[in-house]
C-alpha cells in the first residue's frame, strides 16, 4: 500500500506472548512447528512468554521495562492483542509505550487482525497454517506502519482502546455464543451464524455518528506549538502530560450528541457493527476498502425486517467482500469517525474486539495511527 513504513531495528528484541488456550488449544505447538525456525533463520531474537490466565498479558505489558523490547508480538486470537494494547495505554508513559511495534501471529479462533494484515499485503487469501506462515514472514521482514485505535466509553465510566470492532446484536451474539465451538477453529463463526439465524431477533436503540476529523496527534498543522514545548497539550487532559488521550469528538455519555452529529432514523436493528479493519474473521471480508490507518470507523447496520435467507446471503457474500453489492435494502454502510449507541432493549450483547463488555450506552471515536503494527 502507499503507507510510509519504517523498518524494525536489528537485532529486533521481540517478546512473544502465547495464549496456550486460544483457538483449538494448539498455539504453542503451532509456534514451535511453524514459526520458531523461521525466526531463528531470520536472526530475530525472541523471548517466549506463555500466558497463565486472562489479563496476564495486560498486567505484564503494563509493568514491563519497554526499553528491553523492540517489538511485542502475540500468538493467539484478537483477544490477547486487546489485552496488550490496553496494558500499554494504562501506563503513565502511554504516549511512548503505544508506539512499541506490535505484531500478531494467528493462533486463535478469531484472527481478524491477522487476516486483515495479510489482506493489506495484497497477497491472495490464506487460511489456517498458510495465514500463520504469512504473518511469520511479515515478522521476519519487520516493516512497521501505523495502526488506528478507537477509544471506547461505557456508561459506567470505563474507557478502553479497541483495534478491531464494536458490535451489537447479531454479530455480538454470534461471536460470544460461538466461543463454545472454539475447538473447531475459525469455522466457529459460520456455525454460530447458522445457529443464531434460527433465533433471529430485533434490538431497539438509538444510533448516532459524527464524520468530523479529530485533531491529529502526530502531525499538528504548521504553526502549532510542538506538544513537548507546551505544558497544555490539545490532546491531553489538564496539565498532566501522562493522562490518557482526550476524545475531542465525544461529549459525556450523559449529554446529548452535538448538533453536528447525525442521528440515524431507524431504531429497530438486527445488528450494528463498527469495524476499523478489513476483516471481521478469517473468512469475513467486511470492509473492502479499509486499511490499517485510514482514520475511519466503518459503520454497518442491518435494520429490522430483513429475512433470514437475506441475512444469510449477506454473510455468505462477505467471504468475497461482495455483500454491499447484494442490493439489500436493510443493509447500511457509512464511514464515520465517532459513533454512539444507546440500546433501549433490556437485554443484549455488546462486544469490543470480540470480548463482551457491559451492556448499555456506549460511544467511541477514532485515534488515527495511534499504535504501530508490524505488517507486510
Ligand atoms: P480466541 O481467538 O481463540 O478467542 P483469544 O486470544 O481471543 O483467542 O483469547 C481468548 C481469551 O482468553 C481472551 O479473553 C484472553 O484474554 C484470554 N486468555 C489469555 N491467556 C489466557 C490463559 N492463559 N488462560 C485463559 N484465558 C486466557
Ligand atoms: Mg477471541
From TrEMBL:
SUPFAM superfamilies: NAD kinase/diacylglycerol kinase-like. GO terms for biological process: cellular response to growth factor stimulus; negative regulation of apoptotic process; sphingosine biosynthetic process. Transmembrane segments: none annotated. Residues 210-253 are annotated as: Disordered. It holds the Pfam family YegS_C. Signal peptide: none annotated. Residues 233-246 have a biased composition (Polar residues). One of its GO terms (cellular component) is membrane. It is an enzyme of class 2 (transferase). The keyword Nucleotide-binding applies. Residues 9-156 form the DAGKc domain. GO terms for molecular function: ATP binding; sphingosine kinase activity. It is found in: Endomembrane system. Its EC number is 2.7.1.91. Keywords: ATP-binding, Kinase, Membrane, Nucleotide-binding, Transferase. PANTHER family: SPHINGOSINE KINASE, SPHINGOSINE KINASE 1. This is sphingosine kinase. The lineage of its organism: Eukaryota, Metazoa, Chordata, Craniata, Vertebrata.
